[in-house]
Design a protein that fits this description.
single chain; 270 residues; alpha/beta; D-Maltodextrin-Binding Protein, domain 2; 2 domains; six-stranded mixed β-sheet; three-stranded antiparallel β-sheet
Length: 270
């Protein structure tokens, strides 16, 4: 019998992937016929093989797809950790404010749920950007704001926290959402059958076992919180938020305050 395959969102394995290997080892010693950890180098590879994972730790949008399209069971989420969004401004903007985003173009990764979350947070405050211009990564969003292509950008908070102090200093982060509407979720494939409840029991009890608690500490949270399918309803709500986009043919680029004499306008490392 083949071992159980565990997969993890690439954003979470980009730094210290061994943390998740330790989790797979912990589960492997307690689930027959054992667990093997499969690392995805990027989201393209992750999505191409996603349905082959019997245990999957996925971002909110991928979790919703697995539940609705593949019949995966939600098991738990990191206690106290939610996916939030940081709004950053070009460092030439003297007094960044949410109100200043009204009817402006901003930059983000439109395929990722933090973009919807940012629009939700702004809408509750009566602010509507004119358009959200897409980039292919959070790093590209940061660089577009640093270069002054856009006054403002939306950035996934976990990505922002991973930056060095130097990287953070290249922009002005002035808003962090606290909506608590979505989080990464650990899920089980229907292929596991009767082992799903055994896996749920193992995960939800890890914090009571010294070895399990040590592994959780390495992952950055104290325990798994129990969840059921209703946890995905807020993700559905965010998915229904339309993202305003500009006409690509316009090719117009919003500029922040111009660089001063002698200041570099090339991409800055973050």
């Amino acid at each position: 019998m083949q071992k159980i395959k565990m997969m993890v969102c690439p954003h979470d394995t980009s730094r210290n992937p061994e943390r998740w290997f330790f989790l797979s080892q912990y589960l492997s010693s307690r689930l027959a016929p054992g667990v093997i950890f499969s690392v995805s180098l990027d989201f393209k590879e992750f999505h191409a093989n996603l349905r082959s994972g019997q245990i999957v730790y996925a971002n909110p949008r991928d979790s919703l797809k697995l539940a609705e399209n593949e019949g995966y069971t939600v098991l738990g989420r990191p206690h106290g950790l939610f996916d939030e969004v940081v709004i950053v401004a070009n460092d030439q903007v003297e007094a960044p404010s949410l109100e200043d985003l009204a009817d402006r173009e901003v930059v983000s990764v439109n395929s990722m749920l933090p973009t919807n979350l940012a629009l939700y947070a702004l809408a509750t405050r009566g602010v509507q950007p004119r358009a959200v211009v897409n980039r292919d990564s959070w790093l590209s969003v940061m660089n577009a704001v640093v270069r002054g292509e856009f006054r403002y950008g939306f950035v996934y908070d976990d990505f922002y926290r991973s930056l060095t102090n130097l990287g953070k200093s290249t922009v002005r982060a002035f808003f962090l959402s606290e909506e608590q509407k979505s989080s990464h979720i650990i899920m089980a494939s229907p292929e596991l059958g009767d082992q799903i409840e055994r896996l749920r029991h193992l995960l939800l009890g890890m914090h009571e076992d010294p070895k399990g608690a040590e592994i959780l500490k390495g992952l950055g949270f104290s325990r798994w919180s129990p969840v059921d399918g209703s946890v995905l309803e807020s993700v559905r709500e965010l998915n229904r938020i339309g993202i305003p986009v500009r006409d690509d043919a316009a090719k117009a680029t919003e500029k922040a305050a111009p660089h001063g004499p002698g200041q570099c306008s090339c991409p800055h490392p973050v």
